[in-house]
Amino acid sequence: MVEKIKKTDAEWKALLNPEQFHVARKKGTERAFTGALLDNHEQGSYLCACCELELFSSDHKFDSGSGWPSFFKPAHPEHVTEEKDHGFGMTRTEVLCERCEAHLGHVFEDGPRPTGLRYCINSASLQFKKS
Ligand code: FE
């Protein structure tokens, strides 16, 4: 069980830069190929930009060509929540931080082995911690 973190928009605004706030708290999407962590190939952990929960690992990162950091699985399945998203006339599966409900991105079923999944995640919703 992950204990929830709840903050008001004003509290999140004080902690995050405007891009992080827009993407993580308001379900925004950074422009493809602009995120700081897209081409990061260092070994380490990808933490929630909002609450620092460990979400993804460099061990599961791959170059999807999509323009967003991509992972074939979460570091800890219990740290992410998946919800159906019917926005923009599409049905997609949204990925959120289990602890603070930050919007991370979406998961698609066109990923590589062994899971066949592609977690398409905004750099703005992540912070990288080198191991
Ligand atoms: Fe979080």
Describe the overall structure.
This protein has helices at residues 9-15, 18-26, and strands spanning 44-48, 54-57, 61-62, 70-71, 80-85, 92-97, 103-108, 118-121, 126-130. The protein has 131 residues and is α+β, with helices and mostly antiparallel strands. The chain has a single domain (9-130), classed as Metal Binding Protein, Guanine Nucleotide Exchange Factor, Chain A, CATH 2.170.150.20. The strands form 2 sheets. The chain has a 6-stranded antiparallel β-sheet. Strands 2-1-9 form a 3-stranded antiparallel β-sheet, with no helix packed on it. Strand 5 and strand 6 (92-97) form a beta hairpin. The protein is globular. The structure holds fe (iii) ion (FE).
List the helices and strands and how they pair.
Blueprint: H1 9-15, H2 18-26, E1 44-48, E2 54-57, E3 61-62, E4 70-71, E5 80-85, E6 92-97, E7 103-108, E8 118-121, E9 126-130
Antiparallel strand pairs: 1-2, 1-9, 3-4, 4-8, 5-6, 6-7, 7-8
Bound molecules: fe (iii) ion (FE).
Residues 48, 50-51, 53, 97, 99-100, 102 line the site of fe (iii) ion.
